[in-house]
Write a structure and sequence with these properties.
Layout (H helix, E strand, L loop, with lengths): L8 E6 L37 E7 L4 E7 L8 E7 L15 E6 L15 H16 L7
Antiparallel strand pairs: 1-2, 3-4, 4-5
């Protein structure tokens, strides 16, 4: 697994002074249509002068492995994901040292209720162990 982007990538929506230099969308979709030019006054990276209403779109914490299980499986209809910080270009991501875990039941279709903190340690360990088997498997011997 190799993340596409592993550095902080801040986006800001106000006080942008930098001119648009390419055709990449320069702001959030709720601010204007992408093809309205110039649109750099509403969205852009903070080094370009934008410094109000900022948020991270990417961070080194965006490395993850996940397991989606279906109804009738050992874990039922669910999504279990583990996140870990790191830069794959420098060293392999160590998912045994997780920074965040998500666990959602399929009935929570918008994934608004992370069940990680209210699920037993034994149940989480089973999901972690199953995810590690999938993550480490290679070739014909995968489950």
């Amino acid at each position: 697994m190799r993340p596409q982007y592993i550095e902080y990538n801040d986006k800001c929506m106000q006080n942008c002074k930098a001119p648009q230099t390419d055709n990449y969308p320069a702001r959030d979709s709720w601010c204007t249509t992408i093809d309205a030019q110039p649109n750099s006054h509403c969205w852009g990276p903070s080094p370009a002068g934008c410094n109000v209403s900022c948020y991270h779109t990417e961070t080194p914490d965006n490395n993850y492995i996940a397991m989606r299980t279906m109804e009738g499986s050992a874990f039922g209809d669910a999504l279990y994901a583990e996140f870990a910080s790191g830069n794959q270009g420098n060293t392999p991501i160590d998912f045994s040292n997780r920074t965040f875990t998500e666990y959602f039941k399929g009935s929570d279709k918008w994934q608004l209720n992370n069940l990680h903190k209210t699920t037993s340690a034994a149940a989480l360990k089973k999901m972690h162990d199953a995810l590690q088997v999938w993550y480490k498997c290679k070739g014909d011997k995968c489950p």
